[in-house]
Amino acid sequence: MIGIFDFVGAVGLFGLRVIGSVFRIPFELEQIWRHIGEAGVRSLALVLSAGLALGVVMTLHTRGALVMFGATAMIPKLQSLGFFVEIGPLVAALLVAGRVGAGNGAVLADMRATEQIDAIEALSMDSFKFLVVPRVVACVIALPLLTVFMDFCGILGGYLSEYTLSHISLHLYLTRAFQGMQWSNFVPPTLKALVFGFIIGTISCFFGYTTNEGAEGVGRAATSSVVVSSLLIILADVILVKIIFLTFPGSAT
Amino acid sequence: MSSENSVTLHGVSKSFGEKQVLDNVSFSVGRGEAICVLGRSGTGKSVTLKLILALLKPDAGNIRIGDDEITQLEGQELSRVRRRMGFLFQSGALFDSLSLHDNLALPLRRLTKKSKDEIEEIIDRVLGQVELAGDKHKMPRELSGGMQKRAGLARALVFEPETLLVDEPSSGLDRITASEIDDLLLDQKVRRGSAMIIVTHDLHGARRVGDRFAVLDKGRLAGLGRPQDLEKHENETVRRLVGG
Rounded to 10 degrees, what is the CA torsion of A96, A98, A104, A105? Predict the structure, then answer.
């Protein structure tokens, strides 16, 4: 039990150090840009294909039930709400936790094991600012963007699935999908992705940067990064959904 | 008052958990002097180097770099003092995502206001010193063990440090390549007057480069002095380690 409190305290302090370091010069814009490419651009294909597939599957599942009530016209709306409010942010975050989280954990742990982090310090550079902060900031920036891509791919997948069954036009599908949609259905959940990005970046960098177990620690850091990030994302989702409902009552309907 | 010594350790102790790695260790190294730290594995030799560079904090004692007490420094002040030292890591510790050129350019670009041409000139000069001028666009994985050591030394020299800390310069290298690294260290000591602290198991290299030996045994400084004096030391471990 003490170990868990120790861990929570250490991660909390690590996260606070990240926040405190973001606003100190140098701002590491070059490194942030590079890691946005790593975390964002290179995750794009994964997120787009997952969004498309989930969109198709979700329509296939909901259609059967809605046909019984003669409510097939609701399919586009359900699809868009489902993706914007929950599936997009959550699944994009879990995918990025798997790909980027494992990568961050392994790379930093390897750098620690091969004394590259010590070498950065020995060269009078701030290794935390140089290695950790840009990775976390990149995750925070990239994840909301990836979430938007996943949302629209999910809707596109839903449309393709629906088109093969009912030959609905794209215009009609999109009109129904966005009818009655409010900003509160779109903005807060997408911002939720900011928090998920912070969790992925912080947790993965924590395990990679603080490990001190040599080569064995590399694998352990990668695994722990994915497992703990994924778990925390799901836990944070529960809390954030409640906060969103309290802050934007309209989004609860 | 200005210190005559480049590095001075006084009563330095360090533990990791229950294990006491260094116990009340004191020695100093002057400008243009090379001191070789000898000892069995796990006696705190590499830890000593990391303490000097403030990569680790001692539990007790003082470490002075010139007139600066490095254990008390943080942030910009620590960075300023560290730039007066170069560290050659046992593995070379090159940044594996950067070419050899960029490994050397990175600290110069970030920490100095030198122009691009000046940076290129420094890189060419230090790579020339370690005979890697033709390999600057190679990635670290394309370099042999000896070349990585030399590249690590080149990177340690980019700020023209007053003090060079060297961790196992000959480990994993054949006798000839190890001797080439020793030549480079000797050149630094003689030509630039750098102070050096060299952790090594290689007695042959230590006798070539080192002016004095510091022998660690079970975390304590068991012997300190010229090799020929330590050969007659009362402590058997010291005698065996210096080959007496």
Answer: 150
